[in-house]
Amino acid sequence: MDGLWFGWLSALWLGILTSISPCPLATNVAAMSYIGKDLGSPARVMATGILYTLGRTAAYAALAWALIASLFAIYDVSFFLQNYMNKALGPILILTGIFLLDVLPLTFTTSCFMGGVEKKLRRAGLAGAALLGMVFALSFCPVSAALFFGSLIPLAMQHGSAVMLPSAYGVGTGLPVFGFAVLIAVGSQWVGSAFNRLAQLEKWARRVTAFLFIMIGIYFSLTHIFEVKL
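Predicted structure:
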């Protein structure tokens, strides 16, 4: 149980780190503009922030469950994962850490809200907030893809948690937006400053996380691949 709680906290942190990374932060700014249009109603602002967070959580949980269930449903893949997951985890973590450090330049996006979809969701009221969270969650860029596919999915598979850990990750990605919704609801003037501080914090948080990933990846590689006794 302690290991599962550690995995849950790790997934939550990965979600928070994802949400304050440059590309996802831009989508969260767009979400903030959606939430901000209801400045006259604090309760509605809070409800919108909660629904947006729930939408992100549902999208990540559903995608992770589908991926993990599909992998374990294939016998050969399931056999490989059960026997070699710890060996594969080391190199995966090292590569993820390298991507987070921008050592390997890679640019792409899987934006899912082109062609006026975002505007239509904005007109859908409170329900649109949840749908907007789902759409933005599936708009992957290099950092969010590395954290989701390279860190969260292996972590969830290692703990045998196809729903709980991805849900924690989704909550983490929505927490900053929910926090800003609270600031807007109480009429705070520090919203812009908070975004700038998050952008600065993200650089250091990503570097520290990347360093930890690489160190843990090296440890897993030494102990499970090269069978070094540490």
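Summary: The CA atoms of residues 51 and 118 lie 16 Å apart.
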